[in-house]
Structures
1.
Amino acid sequence: MNWIAIGVTFKLAALTAMALVVIGLPIAYWVSFSRWRWKFLIESVVALPLVLPPTVLGFYILVAIGPHSPFGRLYTDIVGHPLPFTFEGLLIASVLYSLPFAVQPFAAAFDQVDHRLIETSWTLGVSRFGTFFRLILPMSVAGVVTGFVLSFAHTLGEFGVVLMVGGNIEGVTRTVSIDIYDEVQALNYAGAAKTALFLLALSYLILLAVYAMNRKVWAVWPQK
Amino acid sequence: MAAEIIVNMTKSFPGRLVLEARFGLSIDPPAILILFGPSGSGKTTILRCLAGLERPERGLIRFGAETWFDGQLGIHATPQVRRLGCMFQDYALFPTETVAGNVAYGLAGLPPNEREARVEEALTLLQLQGVEAMKPAQLSGGQQQRVALARAIARRPQLLLLDEPLSALDTPTRARVRGELRHLLKQLAIPSVVVTHDWGEALALGDQMAVIGDGKVLQVGTPQAIFNRPKDADVARIVGIETALEGRVRESVEGLVTVEVAGVTLHALAEDGVGPDVFVCIRAEDVVLAPGSAGTTSARNQLQGRVVDISSMGALVKIGLDCGFPLSAIVTRSAVEDLRLSRDMPVTASMKAGAVHLVPRRDATPSPHDS
């Protein structure tokens, strides 16, 4: 097994999932609580990665972070090298690719919080910001963990976007799924099988944890 | 000018109703206002506008010197700055917090030792010692109600807003808690607005009462005055009770209470939490009339009186009687014809003991039960 690729993959998945908690929570809050009439426009954009072919998404990200885009130029000016085919570029792509896997469970959990509890918190003098951290977030722990784990698992298995944006650089952007593809190309079926089984078992265990946690009877605290 | 709350606002719900509320309430001395009306009449929306959770379209809401809402100037104070104590119908206790956590929730701005003292004080006042560490789901309905109230008063609000505070309780608990709440509100001396559709709560808790129907304030006055003298047929229909008299309990034997009203003795069924001073409430529908003096019936109360007023209310007729105290009866038009009821005619009014309801009187000294 290619332990270097496994290491890169885990680092990427963990950082992606953590970034998505930071980025996804405000987006989910807005999606859940905004009463803006055109909200569905943004919701659809967030959900796009669910249905878009990864190569299409990867292509647009590659163009957007490439040296010819304003963002790409700015990044090159500041950091000194362009974003594509680096770990950072891959991280940005992964975050966008897994966005719905974080935002949707977060928003679904926020939707479950009884609005009367939120209003009660306001009448007790607690700001909207404070209400989010002291009431909404603690009541949404299961949803937040689900979003974290799902985006982690989703990043573990991504292929198309990684290939488009990250390339295939050993120790930098070569992830497990690309490693498997390479092994098969090299007709090393035994190596591919080992890595594939590892990924399968891991994905299954992660989903097992998510479903077990979302079972009402095992909820973190007693629900009414 | 004495400090008071002034509400004069309009809010419309397209296709449903237009809410127009206009009333005042004294802050100093603190008074308790009852918003009384059927469900859907708009009373909860008025409360939510006071809380800042809903924004009226036009008008003014002032609390003493503070302007909470001004449609013209575009002022709308957030709920956070209004220093409120709110208690909603189903209590809205935070399920992730313990009882103590719920009570301390609004006190985050205080230093820890003061916060603890406030929590302790509120828990003691509402007799919640011993359940501090429990989660709301583990409590009984009555305990949850007290936690919600403790949380509302812990931050020493300048205005208490209670939406149907007792409606989630079962009937026996409600009668007892009503007495406790009355005692507590008196002790706290915080101006309060209480939404209810229960006349017992209105009489027991209210200094003032505003009757709300179809989004309009129909009548404002003391609960007793409104129950006895509803302004028109709409108010009479909403309040549903036409006689509320001051009485004094004489004796209580085996669940049957003897109460004296203006020198006349009435029998009623005993209710929990009722002291010696009571309101005696009789629904006009429960009063049965017979010409002259009737024979023996199963009804425990038989009063000799005479007809002083006959007024039509559609298919029904409201008969005003003088039985030593004013009493109203509602009968059908055909009954008026059959009995040949006319002014000054002597009649016997009877009602069962169960139809005579006793409600504790606010200005009375608390009975040993609720102290």
2.
Amino acid sequence: MIEVKGLTKYYGELAAIHDLDFSIDRGEVIGFLGLNGAGKTTALKILGCVLLPTAGDVKVDGIDIARDPHEVRRRIGFLPDTPPLYNDMTVGRYLKFAAELRGVPASEADKAVGDAEEKTATREVHDQPIFSLSHGYRQRVGVAQALVHRPKLLILDEPTSGLDPVQIVEMRSMVRALRGEHTVLLSSHILSEISQTCDRLLVIQRGEIVAQGSEQDLATSLGGGGTIEVEVVGPSTRAIEVARTVTGIGECTVLQETGGVAIVSLQGAPDLRPKVVRALVQNGIDVLRIDRGAARLESIFLRLTQDGKDGTGRPQ
Amino acid sequence: MTAVLLIARRELGGYFRTMTGYIIAGIMLLAQGLFFNAFVLGQGEMYSAEVLNGYFFYAFGTTVISSLFISMRLIAEERQTGTLTLLASSPIHDWEIVVGKFLSALVFLTAITVASIYIPALILVNGKVSAGHMFAGYLGVLLAGGAALAIGVFGSALGRNQVLAVIFSAIITLFIVVSHFLAKVTDRPLKDMFMSLALYARHFPPFQAGSIHLRDVVYYVMVTYVALFAAVRVMEARRWK
């Protein structure tokens, strides 16, 4: 769906992004992960045909954005970091305007607006003026304008920015529901957001892609291989002894042991969880809970960007 | 063309949905009425044509100044609020954005100008005016207003915010309004250039007196075209920044 080669953007003499290479398949949900100022917004604005690159090739659905930006714009829906909302319009009028602007015929615009409102749960504010909306609804209407013309590619820049925890969960499930019908590229510096919503991550630091792949791929490539957290009834020593018999499980650490219940961290891929449970149960150890290791993605992110903390002053 | 009309319709709605449009319209009509009453009717006995001539002189000034305020928000406000991204990421050309916004402002300005017709119509109470004189005067006011709007759109494309936008466009407009003074203190060919540029002195008095000359119409249309062309170029250049 997207092919990017050597994408570079300079602001004056400062390279906001430099020599980016990546590709995204149709139907994927991709997370663009990076610290503030890493170059995410610049890259997304170029993909959204708002900015022109200094150098490099970008193809969306096989069309070069420099040669035929109009055709590319027909295929994309873009939500910038600040939703582009006209406060003086009602939600319904605004979405109809956005639909017609993106080439939806006037006769089909009402249906397109209805569909977008249904997907983003904004139907109840259809007649409400935008200035009166809460932050959560403004963000939803922002997503609705991006998908009202049924684009193949949705680009969402920090869609959960400023939302409360409940709204974040709602936005996350909304983005997940778009999977398949649209290819989705979203950026965030909220790590759990990326982890739970996306199929694959592109980690950007100082304008360069420093890693890409699934959460598991990234963990493996950094030599971590992931961790599993298991809560069992009984002594931790026995649980560790059994867990170590499972091929792929490495170092084991006791995180907590109180009241006959132990929480143990096992180094190994999360895919090994069924095997670990089976081994423990077969050896008479009751399993209360098993999960991916907590804070795993955070540690990956910190390792990838550990020398990029001074990037906050860079333009986006 | 559909995009031009869509943008124009939205912008026009914006003038009527917010207070800005009503405030500008109110101030412009009030100023025209006051000037007409104080400086035209207050001059003693005059021929009706002279009164009408005087009205159009003040109408020119108030219309040009109002045009700068009407147009200052068109692009600068969208850049400030981030809504320009909606237009910039849509499959439309930058010229469609600029022309759509200009059209909406021109329709709004025309609506205010039409609302001011009652002022010269008052001359009919004690005098007689020709419809041709009225038509020529109003055509001149709208052409000059259109040119000022286009300069305002250019300033709005250039400025980071509305204040800077109106400052830029006011400087440009002031320069071409007073350029006939520069013509007086310079030699040829600069003298001719400054004189032919003059937004008021060279090209408006014929309209004011009830005459329509093609060269004056072409001048205002050219100023409008050049300013809108420059605005489109600024919009295109911003995609590189």
